[in-house]
Fold this sequence. Notes:
The chain has a single domain, classed as Metal-dependent hydrolases (TIM Barrel, Alpha-Beta Barrel). Helices cover 42% and strands 18% of the residues. The protein is built from 10 helices and 10 strands. The protein has an 8-stranded parallel sheet with strand order 1-2-3-6-7-8-9-10, sandwiched between helices. Strand 7 (144-149), helix 5 and strand 8 (167-170) form a beta-alpha-beta unit. The longest helix is centred in the middle third of the chain and has 20 residues, at 120-139. The site of zinc ion has 6 residues, from loops. Zinc ion binds at residues 11, 13, 41, 107, 147, 218.
Amino acid sequence: MGFPDCMIDCHCHIADPQFNEDVDDVIQKAREANVKGIVAVPEFPSDFINVIAIADRYPDIILPCLGLHPVQEAKEDGKHRSVTVEEFERVVPLIEKHHGRIGGVGEVGLDFLPKFVQGENDKDAQRKVFKCQIDLAKKYDLPLNVHSRSAGKPVVAWLKEHGAEKVLLHAFDGRSAVALEGVQAGYFFSIPPCALHSPQKQKLIEVVPIDNLLLETDSPVLGPDKHIRNVPSNVVVSCDIIAKTKCMDPADVRRITSENALKLFPRLKDIIEM
Ligand SMILES: [Zn+2]
């Protein structure tokens, strides 16, 4: 039996409140666009139960991940700032509880955008939380779904230092030389639709071998038009930009990136075969 011709959105915030009104329709359009798997990631602790609930509602297309993002909302004023170790400790029982069900630990990582880090203490807290989540992934033999912003080099170094082997670097914004270090370590890179307008992302597509590339949307953000809500069916835009940049047939990009996705997220297999 040949591999099904389809696309997998390997990083998507389908539980985001922006999809509350029309999630049925968004999922239906994804199916019509030949998307057979959506890897759903939370950002805030409040998303955790929603990610699991939405995966329960669409078990034949959504694979949930759980993990704490390096940027969180302050309770006092709703402003975004670095994650704290205490916040992480509160979500550990939830990750532990669902370890047999989730497809990976994520969205986790480092975000050193100056507006989110006040100093070394914030960076330290992010590193600590990231390390604990690398350890959790290793403990349960799960892949990591990793965010890195203004922190490409520290993220790759930290992953390697702590022995992470199954890694997706989503929307990677680091330099090509650093990306290639990730490739050497066997890491995968997922390409969002905004690559259409990003010379940096197109360079990333050029340097990373097709065997290390995946498709993603990061919906509702990182769409082909930044003023319009992004949706999982837009993985076709990612697929096309990879095909164009690498001078490949889009059908080959669909096949290879789907095979890559199954290698990294083996639990997708149960979903696709449903
Ligand atoms: Zn994300």
